[in-house]
Fold this protein.
Amino acid sequence: MKTLGVIGGIGPESTIEYYRYLIAAYRARKPDGSYPTIVINSINMRILLDMIEADDRVRMVEYLVGEIEKLAAAGAECGLLAANTPHIVFDEIRRQASIPMVSIVEATRDAAKVLGLKRLGLFGTRFTMLGDFYPRVFSAAQIELVVPKADEQTYIHDRYMNELVKGAILAETRRGLLAIVDRMKEQEGIEGLILGGTELPLILGDATDQGIPFLDTTRIHVEAAGASVW
């Protein structure tokens, strides 16, 4: 059994969920009463967000690789970034990190392929919805991604950063997000929705009445990481 390393804190609420899901995933694989060895490095989200907002990719890579090396020094043999947005620079990070890294985007693509989905909506931070890292990975599998309209992106990003990251789960926001899903289903023909922010399952993870599957990237990432180390 390998030791798994987690870069957390981006944000703290979803890092808690990662830990819970990792323990549950391990116990499902090995119901012998044992527990996995996990090293968590909870970083300062504000430092990383400043780099992302400035589009300073060189510093982002340097910073995250440095934090990953702390995991390696603590004994981690495989790692993950417990968030979607930092995958903006995942390819560069994977090349430079001294331990293998599990991609949340690649894991989600594989999950979509299993479900046979060809046209998916994508929710997340503004950086995720406007970035090329999701479309690049999914287009290679002939899966089309659709992002919300500009005003909807602003709404999602605002609620994400000012509510969900801080642990505020509001019924009004849930209704607003689901209204966007309904519009995209009716007007854009999406067959499913990627919850491309690890806080989004906190508010939409139990949504079952929209008629399309929601891909919980946190759970998908955990399963992929578990398969790599356990």
